[in-house]
Amino acid sequence: MGNLEVITIALIAANVIVSYKGFNDFSFFEKYKFNVGAIRRGEQIRMFSSGFLHADTTHLFFNMFALYLFSDLVIFDIGKFYFFVVYIGSLIAGNLLSLYFHKNEYHYSAVGASGAVTGVLYSAILLRPERDYYFLFLPSRIGDVDLGIPGFVLGIAYLLYSIYGMKKRIGNIGHDAHFGGAIGGYFITLILMPSLLQSNPLMVGLLAIPIVVLFVLQKMGKI
């Protein structure tokens, strides 16, 4: 992760430039944010543009930091162009799921690259599910005990929490966009790397569990 790829730098730069434009120009922010009513009136550009706007510098920083952490893992395994496809596809998938769950809430609005970044994260986990992940500012081990969390455990737990967050509407967080981004990252990666279905079918199946759970709960009217 020492040397950022040009595509990652370009995406971070685009997010920073568009976000800072939005911070200083209210009309620009309002014109390009995700808004259900505006999208249903035909302003489809918001499905894309909202993924480069952020609510504030903290929101922007954490999304870009996460992109920095996981982009190289995906680029190394599938290449720069396919990484870009995963990023943009996950951004759109996140907003599509938000639109699906909030289609009758005409005033519902959202911004952020979280869907795209979560898609990159889920792609990285799908590509290397056994890789251990560690929490920032916490030790990687205590004595002989390794505190790393296997990627597939982290991915499943995160999406199950997102389902809970969607159901309870926890915080001012677009849990549905996160989940939609993960769905995008999952399926786009499988389309680009179908060999994963043969080389690691168990992990492919395990990482699909939260996706199945979400749509079963939705069909049952519980979310």
TrEMBL record:
Q: Does the keyword Repressor apply?
A: no
Q: Give the record's keywords alphabetically.
A: Hydrolase, Membrane, Protease, Transmembrane, Transmembrane helix
Q: Name the Gene3D superfamilies for this protein.
A: Rhomboid-like
Provide a GO CC annotation, any one: membrane
Tell me the Gene Ontology biological-process terms attached to this UniProt entry.
Answer: proteolysis
Q: How does it sit in the membrane?
A: Multi-pass membrane protein
Give TM segment ranges: 6-24, 45-69, 81-101, 108-127, 147-165, 177-196, 202-218
Domain Peptidase S54 rhomboid: from-to ranges: 42-194
First-listed, main subcellular location of the protein, grouped into a coarse class? membrane
What GO MF terms are annotated?
A: serine-type endopeptidase activity
Q: Where in the cell is it found?
A: Membrane
- One Pfam match, given by its short name, reads Rhomboid
Q: Which InterPro entries match?
A: Peptidase_S54_rhomboid_dom, Rhomboid-like_sf, Rhomboid_protease_S54
Annotated family? Belongs to the peptidase S54 family.
Q: Which PANTHER family match?
A: PRESENILIN-ASSOCIATED RHOMBOID-LIKE PROTEIN, MITOCHONDRIAL (PTHR43731:SF14), RHOMBOID PROTEASE (PTHR43731)
Q: What is this protein called?
A: Rhomboid family intramembrane serine protease
Q: Which organism is it from?
A: Hyunsoonleella flava
